[in-house]
Design a protein that fits this description.
Blueprint: H1 4-18, H2 25-41, H3 46-61, H4 71-86, E1 102-107, H5 114-129, E2 133-138, H6 145-156, E3 160-161, H7 169-182, E4 187-192, H8 200-212, E5 217-223, H9 228-240, E6 245-249, H10 258-267, E7 271-275, E8 283-285, H11 288-296, H12 301-311, H13 314-326, H14 331-343, H15 347-353, H16 370-381, H17 385-389, H18 396-406, H19 410-435, H20 446-449
Parallel strand pairs: 1-4, 1-5, 2-3, 2-4, 5-6, 6-7
Antiparallel strand pairs: 7-8
Bound molecules: guanosine-5'-triphosphate and magnesium ion.
Length: 451
């Protein structure tokens, strides 16, 4: 996982100063030296590091005293604020056209993850934004590129516009736009070809596609594993064709994470999404503040609670409550909940946020098994729509099929089905109780699944 090294170093450095009632200029200087090393080691762009250290130092030395924080804590907060700022401050939204279809163009080097991200993004647009996307196969150069997108489309049950490999990408996109209008698609996502290096032919082609209808978003897809190169690529693409945002893929891999910290300030373009795996649901919106907190390990009980609450928005919570009450809660809702838990960050990290959790008897070994969570997801993905809504129909042969499809065992399926039933019962009891007075909704049962 990205940022581990950086997190460790920064936490160590900040720990020394956190409790201090008074912070001298020498303290700040010493700390900034450490921060500088930590960032450089994480492969953050040198210019960015310099600027960052300068900003933090200036603010830390001349800080306004805030009553609720010790000076030490305050410095930590400044570092966090500046880190957040470095990554763009606010979470960046997708800009949709006021006159649909919204056109999103995916560009980037070979193997960065354009085609995969096209699918993931369409999936999010349909699920979270209620859109009806059309995917366009405009990579006619790499053998099987068209087929790859078609396979993804099939997997997600989303339409793919393709005209094979004999017709020019510009013509393909033109016709795709026609079709989108006819079939009332409100988003068109164009998957373009990649090259090993940025070259004039590629840029020209991208410019020609751009010229058909000005895209609302041009997303540059870059591989986080390439570190500093990712930043250079972003710069070059931005200068050559102009981009509106960046999707940073493979952040689940063994990267030092520096690209995430540098891209925004070097290119002035926001990171919009991060790719966290190969599966079609492994794309997450990029939250600068959350990322900064995670890097600094600043979690505490309060922010944990806040996160848990803000992740379930009010309306959705009401909907779910209704579902619990009427017992129409399905495996799809369950998947959504798992997704929300996952969005809160790595579960081990969440456990670490609980003050003294490590010291409670019996809890020291309560390592949350994220593999188990993945297994549960895989099982649900292998179910048919009908099975997800009416699990009662899952009989022997179906169990066998699901186990095979998800790479699990029949026992795993049985266990999940039983837990799901128990959970539904418990929810019913809870919602009944809540109706008698309690206000806040909780999400019971989930934790017991992942131990
Ligand atoms: N681990 C991980 N793998 C990813 C991620 N995004 C994409 N990949 C993998 O990266 C490889 C390349 O992805 P593609 O989507 O084919 O990349 P592309 O940019 O379309 O490549 P070209 O069409 O050849 O230019 C595939 O094996 C993907 O599964 C991610 O976020 N994490
Ligand atoms: Mg591709």
């Amino acid at each position: 996982m990205a940022f581990e090294g950086l997190a460790e170093r920064l936490q160590g450095t900040l720990q020394k100063i956190k409790g201090k009632g008074k912070v001298s200029e020498a303290d700040v200087k010493e700390m900034m030296r450490e921060v500088r090393y930590a960032l450089l080691e994480a492969d953050v762009n040198l210019k960015v590091v310099k600027e960052f250290v300068k900003n933090v130092s200036a603010r830390a030395v001349g800080q306004d005293v805030m009553k609720s924080l010790t000076p030490g804590q305050q410095v930590v907060k400044i570092v966090k604020d500046e880190l957040t700022e470095l990554m763009g401050g606010e979470q960046s939204q997708i800009s949709f056209s006021t006159r649909p279809p919204t056109v999103i163009m995916m560009v980037g080097l070979q193997g960065a993850g354009k085609t995969t991200t096209t699918g993931k993004l369409a999936n999010i647009l349909r699920k979270k934004y209620n859109k009806k996307p059309l995917l366009v196969a405009a990579d006619i150069y790499r053998p099987a590129a068209v087929q790859q997108l078609q396979t993804i489309g099939k997997q997600l049950s989303l339409p793919v516009f393709a005209l094979g490999t004999e017709i020019s990408p510009v013509e393909i996109v033109k016709q795709a736009m026609e079709q989108a209008k006819e079939e009332h698609h409100d988003v068109v996502i164009i998957d373009t070809a990649g090259r090993l290096h940025i070259d004039e032919t590629l840029m020209q082609e991208l410019k020609d596609i751009r010229a058909i209808k000005e895209p609302d978003e041009v997303f540059l897809v870059v591989d986080a594993m390439t570190g500093q190169d990712a930043v250079n690529v972003a710069n070059n693409f931005n200068e050559a064709i102009g981009i509106t945002g960046v999707v940073l893929t493979k952040l689940d891999g063994d990267t030092r994470g520096g690209a995430a910290l540098s891209i925004r300030s070097v290119t002035q373009k926001p990171i919009k999404f991060v790719g966290m795996g190969e599966k079609m649901d492994a794309l997450e919106p990029f939250h600068p503040e959350r990322m900064a907190s995670r890097i600094l390990g600043m979690g505490d009980m309060m922010s944990l609670i806040e996160k848990a609450q803000s992740n379930v928005d009010e309306e959705r919570a009401k909907e779910l409550e209704e579902k619990f009450r009427t017992q129409s809660f399905t495996f799809d809702d369950f998947l959504e909940q798992i997704g929300q838990v996952k969005q809160m960050g790595p579960l081990d990290e969440i456990l670490k946020m609980l003050p003294g959790a490590g010291k409670i008897k019996g809890l020291e070994n309560a390592k949350v098994d994220e593999k188990q969570m993945d297994r549960v997801e895989a099982i649900i993905y292998s179910m048919t729509t009908q099975e997800k809504t009416t699990p009662e129909i899952i009989n022997g042969p179906r169990k066998k099929r699901i186990a095979k499809g998800s790479g699990t065992s029949i026992q795993d399926i049985n266990r999940l089905l039983k837990q799901f039933e128990d959970m539904k019962k418990m929810m019913k009891q809870m919602t009944n109780m809540q109706q008698k007075g309690k206000k806040k909704m909780k999400m019971p049962g989930l934790d017991s699944l992942f131990k």
